[in-house]
Design a protein that fits this description.
Elements (H helix, E strand, L loop, with lengths): L2 H26 L5 E5 L6 H17 L3 E5 L6 H9 L6 E6 H10 L7 H4 E10 L1 E5 L8 H10 L5 E4 L5 H12 L5 E4 L3 H10 L4 E5 H9 L4 E5 L24 E8 L4 H15 L2 H9 L3 E2 L4 H22 L5
Parallel strand pairs: 1-2, 1-3, 6-7, 6-8
Antiparallel strand pairs: 3-10, 4-10, 4-11, 5-8, 5-9
Helix pairs in contact: 2-10, 4-12, 7-12
């Protein structure tokens, strides 16, 4: 036997042993309950999505799935928890884009880095933001709202659901682009902003579509412009359609894992999540929450994250927001 042949056989043997050991390693990986960590309280968009997965995944993975709400600091507390969690597949992170895209950019020290501490598993859904107004200005589009603001200096405020959020940067950039003296007012969550909008204490807001849809349907809130065209708001122009494409910042829901989770586990979970998102009742439930189900590979999720990060980075730079 030539030296070359011996070397080839040895290489193949080594490869076979490596594969076998990898198989053993993945066989030894976590088989108990999976904890799905959510950075927001029960009842919100992220929580709704996580509970749909927790209900459907056990049948596919043959493992129980438990939702763990670790709310606070825009999902930061949950992200730090997942960063430090075991990477054996026992812990997954169900998050929105705000936590993984915006939080690391608005804080000098978020306590986690999306790119080095977390690993994308799968996208779950995306949802649009809408610029909405109280019916009293009688505005049916952005131009008419701006005309109302020009006449009514005391009303020149647009509510946003959180400080240092995409909606806040959208409002700041909108004011710059239209040379309008309009200020964002940050609330603690979408719900109180919606209440003030309904009550007329504030005449406009940038909010997730899901938070205003039921009121828009009965005419208590007017949808003026949306981040991307959506079937949920037929006939409502998108920012790109009215000549403001840089404001087209949607949000997403996705599943991430601790950075060192094995490729085998990431593939396994991605496949199961894709199966869940193909179920007709799941598609219906996601739409009922004013979202669009979206899925794909971990690589596709990473590309969405990077594009979203670049958009937010440009907005932050344009409005001159300083990390806190």
């Amino acid at each position: 036997m030539s030296h070359h042949n011996a070397k080839t056989i040895f290489t193949r043997l080594l490869f076979a042993v490596t594969l076998m050991l990898q198989g053993l390693a993945s066989a030894q990986e976590h088989k108990g309950p999976i904890t799905l960590v959510v950075g927001y309280p029960p009842g919100g968009t992220a929580d709704i999505g996580a509970r749909i997965l927790a209900e459907k995944l056990p049948a596919l993975l043959r493992q129980p799935v438990i939702v763990d709400n670790r709310a606070g600091a825009g999902g930061q507390i949950a992200a730090r928890y997942v960063k430090a969690a075991p990477s054996d597949g026992s812990v997954l992170f169900f998050t929105n884009g705000h936590t993984v895209v915006t939080v690391p950019q608005i804080l000098k020290s978020a306590g986690f880095d999306t790119e080095t501490d977390l690993r994308p598993v799968a996208q779950f859904a995306d949802f649009e933001l809408v610029l909405a107004s109280h019916p009293s200005p009688r505005a049916t589009n952005l131009k008419e709202l701006m005309e109302y603001f020009a006449r009514t200096p005391s009303a020149r405020h647009i509510a946003v659901p959180a400080p240092g959020s995409s909606p806040e940067f959208i409002v700041g950039r909108l004011a710059q682009l239209l040379k309008a003296e309009v200020q964002p007012i940050a609330y603690r969550g979408a719900a109180p902003a919606v209440q003030d909008l309904l009550g007329g204490q504030i005449v406009a807001a940038v909010l997730p579509v899901g938070d205003v849809l039921q009121y828009q349907k009965v005419g208590r809130i007017t949808a003026l412009t949306v981040t991307h065209p959506t079937q949920l708001l037929p006939g409502v122009a998108s920012f790109a359609e009215i000549g403001l494409p840089e404001l087209a910042v949607s949000d997403f829901l996705a599943v991430y894992a601790p950075a060192k989770m094995s490729d085998a586990n990431v593939v396994r979970y991605n496949k199961a999540i894709q199966q869940v998102l193909a179920m007709p009742d799941v598609i219906e439930r996601i739409r009922a929450s004013a979202m669009q189900q979206r899925t794909g590979t971990p690589e596709e999720m990473d590309a969405i994250y990077r594009e979203s990060s670049a958009r937010v980075r440009r907005l932050i730079a344009a409005v001159g927001y300083q990390p806190q």
